[in-house]
């Protein structure tokens, strides 16, 4: 649906925002007036004139009392609170503890048995087991041949059923 009339070459944008004339602004800078000063510079600036040196100021007098030692007229007591509160404790003479006094070494009168439960239970194959002592032979234990060890212990709590090497059985 195109219009049938002629097309205008001015758009709404161009109609509303027309270019404005640019006029250069005048400079507000004052004209340069350079001239030579005939007199020498006296170093009198605003800062120096505002903050003058007041000179030496005497220190203020202290209100604290004068620090001088006055010897007391009466004799000083030798007993102080510290000395009276904490009396010296006499250290007792050192004593040897009873466990430090040991008798002279005495050799054991019996030979040390070299048989252990491990040696008598697990021997290498081919070794003579007659030298080892059966752990059940020196007690009141009755050997138990039950299949279940719990039954033996229930009937006789002293029942021995130690594993033995193959050559001892």
TrEMBL record:
GO molecular function terms listed in the Swiss-Prot or TrEMBL record: microtubule binding
GO cellular component: cytoskeleton
Protein family according to the UniProt entry: Belongs to the FAM154 family.
PANTHER family attached to this UniProt entry: STABILIZER OF AXONEMAL MICROTUBULES 2
Protein name: Uncharacterized protein
